[in-house]
């Protein structure tokens, strides 16, 4: 704990982000909501917490398994998932399916949420002696919809960043790059998944450089970012004493959803230092300012006849165009032990620290200049931690006792608490407001942003809620930001969306508006901004019969 308090005195080593940072700073009203502790009670005896996933709409998915008494690296071949929604409603998925031994011993199974109420369990299975990756598509009612072959065991499956856009299979090629396969969402009746297309990330072919490694990350507007690390090949060259040789180069390239051609790789970092290695640890979206990647550099420093090796961590920031912003060392106080550094949607950064001899986790919040603002910890009684990144809430689960799991939610300090009701700090207000009763004849809805915006390519959609969690809501209208129909007002902050005549024609009905990420971009940097998740911006048409 003492280490954490030292952070408060930490020198400001972060570069001051002059024009970059700052729509968050303006309203410094710091809120400190309360921690929430609740208990989940598992109805099936013997099931143990295995892992959790969080969804941006606030659902906690708890994966429960039966231990294999004979081998702790294995589990019994069944799948149980509990979904705790924001409203507190719990869905129990108990799959009546026995997975093959290859999937459970050792555990070679995972799952990803798909669109609507679909989930795909991803597991390893042998077919005629050849191990492959398979996907079992199931729904919230524990029904099996389809089983699909996903590819080689070494390929990996990730969501596309947007559940309603399907998922991606990545096939890595040694020293050459990777092929991405864009797979559709399951067909609503047959569960069939089709490949929309594939794309290739090809390592730039640079004379005297060899490809060392790559790292991929989700883009908020759907799609994948790809970072390549290239190293100067000393063997093939005579000019090794040239002090101007760039020994290491990092490029980034982006593959946006709906396009199959990655952007031309941009050089974001290069160094003349003969480092031992360059490794990417993580890349996260920095709200309205591009991406932040954490990169570690391993260097051997030789002083006369002494040499020592040190590893330093840096944050590499770039825009979604690939334009470089900064490369700065992360102070040693932060980077010691196993740590994780991520950008927070409500401003500033979260540093999480993990230890090898305990499950405890310490965390701290830093402002945009790297100054310590607050912190806390999950003690050793917590065996699992995770985060709802959209609303900045950490989650810890205590050691299971019998069938009970105690879950603690710790809301993180928000440097800016604007737009909390929309789960989006760049949204100031909307018309209609949340929970307003509207006249079904309104001809537009508006969104007022906290910063000047421009329209972009993603959609805004209005759904009529049907109140049945097992049925999709009814789409009433969808418009893309760049369809001439949407406009930005003269203040540059307010977006006007026309309403089709039929959209709200149901009296006494509830609606929600979903805004996709990248519906608008910031005017200052042309960076995609976050949208609004489902069941957040909700309102109803009034019951006309009351008035007439
Ligand atoms: C902060 O909140 C207080 C009370 O809610 C309010 O009076 C004050 O004006 C707010 N300050 C800013 C800068 O928003
Ligand atoms: C964040 O989301 C979780 C999950 O929906 C919810 O339980 C929690 O109360 C939210 N926290 C805040 C501060 O809104
Ligand atoms: C599980 O599936 C098998 C065969 O598919 C069926 O015979 C059995 O009744 C099912 N069990 C339950 C509890 O649904
Ligand atoms: C740094 O590189 C050296 C030389 O390649 C290696 O021996 C050492 O294990 C590396 N250190 C870390 C922490 O990766
Ligand atoms: C270099 O090594 C020699 C012998 O090992 C030692 O006497 C000398 O002090 C060392 N020099 C430095 C600068 O460490
Ligand atoms: C974990 O190890 C560190 C030293 O590496 C020690 O200071 C600390 O007390 C240990 N914690 C526990 C819970 O054993
Ligand atoms: C917007 O919606 C239309 C119609 O549903 C769809 O075809 C299109 O792919 C969507 N655009 C994006 C960027 O999601
Ligand atoms: C809105 O943006 C345009 C284009 O950047 C600019 O010319 C205009 O002055 C801005 N209007 C306001 C009210 O800031
Ligand atoms: C309006 O909708 C609510 C909820 O669906 C329902 O309970 C109520 O009876 C409806 N009122 C009328 C007058 O239809």
Largest sheet geometry: 5 strands, mixed
CATH topology of the domain at 419-541: Immunoglobulin-like
Flag low-confidence runs.
1-31
Termini separation comes to 66 Å
- pLDDT averaged over residues: 87
* Sheet with most strands: strand arrangement: 30-39-37-33-34
Alpha-beta classification: mainly beta
Helix fraction, binned, reads: under 10%
How many DSSP E strands?
A: 39
Small molecules bound: 2-acetamido-2-deoxy-beta-D-glucopyranose
Which features would summarize this protein structure in a list?
Immunoglobulin-like; globular; disordered N terminus; 548 residues; SbsA Ig-like domain-containing protein; four-stranded antiparallel sheet; signal; mainly beta; binds 2-acetamido-2-deoxy-beta-D-glucopyranose; 3% helix; single chain; 4 helices
Explain what this protein looks like in three dimensions.
This protein is mainly beta. It has a domain of 123 residues: Immunoglobulin-like. 3% of the residues lie in helices and 49% in strands. It is built from four helices and 39 strands. The strands form ten sheets. The protein has a five-stranded mixed β-sheet, with no helix packed on it. The protein is globular. The termini are far apart. It binds 2-acetamido-2-deoxy-beta-D-glucopyranose (9 copies). The site of one 2-acetamido-2-deoxy-beta-D-glucopyranose has 2 residues, from loops.
List the helices and strands and how they pair.
Elements: H1 2-6, E1 36-41, E2 48-54, E3 60-65, E4 79-84, E5 90-95, H2 101-104, E6 109-113, E7 118-127, E8 130-139, E9 144-152, E10 156-159, E11 167-173, E12 177-183, E13 195-202, E14 209-218, E15 223-232, E16 248-256, E17 266-271, E18 277-285, E19 291-303, E20 306-318, E21 324-329, H3 332-335, E22 338-343, E23 349-354, E24 361-366, E25 372-378, E26 382-388, E27 393-398, E28 404-411, E29 427-431, E30 437-438, E31 444-449, E32 453-455, E33 459-464, E34 474-480, E35 487-488, E36 494-498, E37 510-515, E38 520-522, E39 532-541, H4 544-547
């Amino acid at each position: 704990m003492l280490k954490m308090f030292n952070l408060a005195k930490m020198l400001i080593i972060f570069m001051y982000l002059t024009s970059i940072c700052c729509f968050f700073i303006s309203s410094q009203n710091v809120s400190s909501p309360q921690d929430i502790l609740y208990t989940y009670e598992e109805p099936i005896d013997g099931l143990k917490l295995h892992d959790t996933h969080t969804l941006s709409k606030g659902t906690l998915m708890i994966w429960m398994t039966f231990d294999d008494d004979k081998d702790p690296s294995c589990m019994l071949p069944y799948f149980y998932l509990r979904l705790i929604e924001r409203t507190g409603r719990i869905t129990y998925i108990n799959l009546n399916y026995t997975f093959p031994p290859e999937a459970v011993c050792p555990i070679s199974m995972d799952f990803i949420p798909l669109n609507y109420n679909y989930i795909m369990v991803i597991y390893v299975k042998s077919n005629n002696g050849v191990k492959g990756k398979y996907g079992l598509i199931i729904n919230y009612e524990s029904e099996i919809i389809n089983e699909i072959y996903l590819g080689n065991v070494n390929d990996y499956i990730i969501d596309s960043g947007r559940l309603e856009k399907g998922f991606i299979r990545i096939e890595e090629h040694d020293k050459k790059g990777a092929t991405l396969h864009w797979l559709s969402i399951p067909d609503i009746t047959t569960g069939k998944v089709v490949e929309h297309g594939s794309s290739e990330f090809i390592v730039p072919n640079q004379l005297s450089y060899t490809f060392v490694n790559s790292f991929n990350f989700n883009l908020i507007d759907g799609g994948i970012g790809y970072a390549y690390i290239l190293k100067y090949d000393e063997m093939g060259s005579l000019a090794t004493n040239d002090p101007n040789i760039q020994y290491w180069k990092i490029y980034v390239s982006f593959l946006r959803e709906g396009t199959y051609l990655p952007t031309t790789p941009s050089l974001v970092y290069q160094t003349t230092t003969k480092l031992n290695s360059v490794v990417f640890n993580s890349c996260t979206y920095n709200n309205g300012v591009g991406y932040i990647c954490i990169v570690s550099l391993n260097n051997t420093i030789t002083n006369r006849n002494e040499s020592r090796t040190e590893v330093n961590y840096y944050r590499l920031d770039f825009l979604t165009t690939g334009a470089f912003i900064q490369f700065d060392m992360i102070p040693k106080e932060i980077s010691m032990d196993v740590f994780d550094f991520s950008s927070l949607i409500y401003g500033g950064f979260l540093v999480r620290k993990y230890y090898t001899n305990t499950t405890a986790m310490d965390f701290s919040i830093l402002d945009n200049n790297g100054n310590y603002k607050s912190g806390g910890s999950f003690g050793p009684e917590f065996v699992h931690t995770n985060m709802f990144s959209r609303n900045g809430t950490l989650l810890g689960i205590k050691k299971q006792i019998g069938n009970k799991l105690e879950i603690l939610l710790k809301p993180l300090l928000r440097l800016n608490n604007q737009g909390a009701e929309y789960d989006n700090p760049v949204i100031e207000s909307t018309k209609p407001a949340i929970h307003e009763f509207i006249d079904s004849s309104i001809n537009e809805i508006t969104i007022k942003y906290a910063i000047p915006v421009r329209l972009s390519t993603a959609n805004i959609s209005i759904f009529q809620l049907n109140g049945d969690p097992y049925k999709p809501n009814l789409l009433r209208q969808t418009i893309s930001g760049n369809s001439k129909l949407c406009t930005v007002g003269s203040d540059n902050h307010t977006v006007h969306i026309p309403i089709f005549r039929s959209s709200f024609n149901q009296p006494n009905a509830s609606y929600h508006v979903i805004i996709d990420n990248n519906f608008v971009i910031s005017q200052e940097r042309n960076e995609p901004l976050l949208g609004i998740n489902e069941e957040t911006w909700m309102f109803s048409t009034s019951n006309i019969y009351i008035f007439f």
